[in-house]
Write a structure and sequence with these properties.
Layout lengths: L12 E4 L15 H6 L1 H7 L3 E4 L3 E2 L11 E5 L6 H13 L3 E7 L8 H8 L11 E3 L1 E3 L2 E3 L13 E3 L5 E4 L14 H17 L3 E5 L33 H13 L7 E7 L4 H8 L8 E4 L23 H15 L6 E3 L8 H4 L6 H13 L4 E5 L21 H12 L4 H11 L37 H5 L5 H12 L2 H7 L3 E3 L7 E7 L4 E7 L5 E4 L6 E5 L6 E2 L2 E4 L4 E5 L1
Parallel strand pairs: 1-2, 1-15, 2-5, 5-11, 11-12, 12-13, 14-15
Antiparallel strand pairs: 3-4, 6-10, 7-8, 9-10, 16-17, 17-18, 18-23, 19-22, 20-23, 21-22
């Protein structure tokens, strides 16, 4: 067992979707050498921890989350030597790297699954969940009524046999069987390989789903019009999961000074999260959840008008507060607005009409809250949702393809579906990074697989913003520097609490030191509002407008106006 230094507590994280960050060889796909070429940019921005989405060999049915070979870098992204170069160059610059590690499933092209299909008596057959289907009125049905996350049955038939295999995501991503000790050992070997190589940790994809209801009984929740039941309790945060994680910690993680971040979706309450991450006996270090990612009601909002999409700021504040109250002093917490599975935060909670103001407000709220902040690539320049004109532009995402088919079957028009995808599709977060105003935004010299957002020609790119002293990127860089200032860093470790929980428009919080407070105040509306403020201001550390309007202890906050104050 090694001594954990908890280095991540003072880190500023940055999330990279490798396919869309920087293309180095002009094939239209971002790659590891592209990331390496931008390390100085990242260092200058002030980040020192990268979470890189999947880079292992994959058929790319689900953008790399369908792994074909864990020991090989996807040729689209480079070579194993390119990964080693990236690690070495990042470490020279004081940047740590966590890789996305997919534990819940493999690609159906993985050798384990291919052998399981070829030989029902093989050891690998036990690495997956195979079950016989049910004959009903002469028709072969899946083993149960479970519905997966990608709008289909969670089961896929094996050829013309009576056998089915479980997949809670794409049918090309069969779930592995963590109840099998031999399977678990295979994953521990993979983890050791990369930690020994120099990787600083892992983001553990779909971690909450490793344990399944092994009775495979039908769900009793209401079914959809196709007779399928969406019931995450059958495959999320089940008791056996914590036995698997304890073993993973004991056999692997305890022997490295590494960071582990589990993805648990929205299926775990803050108090339950401690089973994963408690300092005393938790198996991993942090959890990513989605509780604060859809606070504007956009999820599943195909029937909503645009004017019905409005951020529930009180609900958002309560969610952040509940995580803090449950975990402060007991577990480390990551803070982030979105990741590769969500729409852009600027389009969710900000406004393209107030791009600069809202991007700066959201960055300020993120960087000075509590825990370890993670910036999603492009948020530092105000990247926003796409305005694609064709449904087909979203088809690189298997989830979107399935969703379109389902919604067409339900009678929605293509116009409704397109508008919905532009609002909610995760493709919004996967468009190429906008580096400059040259063709394809400086991401590549050829057309990328995912279309570039046209607003890169309107100044939404890194180079144009670097040349503007009042730009979003310069604000974010300055804010990160302030976060690392020793006096402010000390205040960030002080108790945190929401200020005026019931204000419907303003998100404000404070860290309370012995003789001063650090206060963030942000109006998250595209209109002005008022906010009572009864402290003596010692210093306006950050502000996204040119002047301050405060009279008789009341701020007049303009659209998306924000402050970082020492009081």
């Amino acid at each position: 067992m090694v001594n954990k230094t908890h280095w991540w507590r003072d880190a500023v994280g940055y999330i990279i979707y490798p396919e869309s960050f920087q293309d180095s060889n002009n094939d239209g796909v971002g790659d590891l050498p592209g990331i390496t070429s931008r390390l100085d940019y990242l260092k200058d921005l002030g980040v020192n921890l990268l979470w890189i989405c999947p880079v292992f060999d994959s058929p790319m049915d689900d953008n790399g989350y369908d792994v074909r070979d864990y020991y090989k870098i996807n040729p689209l992204f480079g070579t194993n030597e390119d990964l080693k170069t990236l690690l070495d160059e990042a470490h020279k610059r004081g940047i740590r790297i966590c890789l996305d590690f997919v534990l819940n499933h493999t690609s159906d092209e993985h050798p384990w699954f291919q052998k399981a299909l070829a030989d029902p008596n093989s050891e690998e057959r036990g690495f997956y969940h195979f079950r016989k289907g049910k004959w009903v009125d002469g028709k072969l049905l899946p083993p149960n009524n479970w519905k997966g996350f990608f709008a289909t049955s969670a089961w896929e038939r094996v050829g013309e046999t009576d056998d089915f295999y479980l997949h809670i995501f794409s049918k090309k991503m069969p779930d592995v069987n963590w109840a099998n000790p031999a399977l678990r050992q295979r994953y521990y070997e993979i983890a050791r390989h990369y930690l020994d190589l120099g990787v600083d940790g892992f983001r553990l994809d779909a971690l909450a789903h490793l344990a399944k209801d092994m009775t495979f009984s039908d769900s009793t929740v209401p079914t959809d019009e196709f007779g399928r039941a969406y019931d995450p309790s059958k495959f999320s945060s089940r008791p056996e999961l914590f036995d698997y994680l304890a073993e993973f910690k004991r056999e692997v993680l305890d022997h490295y000074d590494c960071l582990t971040i589990g993805e648990v979706g929205g299926g775990v309450r803050p108090e339950e999260a401690l089973r994963y991450v408690c300092f005393e006996n938790g198996a991993i270090n942090m959890l990513f959840n989605f509780d604060t990612a859809w606070c504007n009601g956009a999820y599943g909002s195909i029937d909503k008008r645009d004017d019905e999409i409005k951020t529930d700021i009180i609900g958002m504040k309560r969610s952040f507060e509940s995580w803090y109250k449950s975990c402060a002093g007991k577990a480390d917490l990551p803070i982030y607005w979105e990741n590769h599975d969500h729409p852009r935060v600027l389009s969710q909670y900000g406004s393209t009409a107030y791009r600069g103001e809202s991007a700066k407000a959201l960055a300020t709220l993120l960087l000075f809250m509590y825990g370890t902040p993670f910036i999603y690539y492009g948020d530092e320049i105000g990247m926003s949702n796409v305005t694609y004109s064709r449904i087909e532009d979203f088809y690189m995402d298997v989830g979107n393809r399935n969703d379109v088919e389902e919604k067409r079957a339900l009678g929605y028009s293509d116009e409704q579906i397109l508008h919905y995808l532009c609002r909610c599709s995760r493709v919004n977060a996967r468009t190429p990074m906008q580096w400059n105003s040259s063709p394809y935004a400086g991401f590549s010299n050829v057309a990328p697989r995912v279309k570039v957002n046209d607003n890169y020609l309107e100044g939404v790119n890194a180079l144009d913003e670097m040349n503007d002293p009042y730009s979003i990127i310069n604000f974010v860089q300055y804010a990160i520097g302030k976060r690392k200032d020793p006096e402010i860093a000390a205040l960030l470790k002080k108790p945190w609490k929401i200020v005026d929980m019931n204000h419907p428009d303003v998100f404000a919080y404070q860290h309370e030191g012995e003789d001063e407070r650090l206060v963030v105040v942000a109006n998250l509306r595209p209109y002005s509002t008022f906010f009572g403020f009864y402290h003596t201001i010692r210093d306006v550390v950050l502000h996204n407008y040119g002047d301050v309007i405060i009279n008789d202890h009341v701020f007049t906050l303009r659209p998306f106006e924000c402050f970082l104050l020492r009081v």
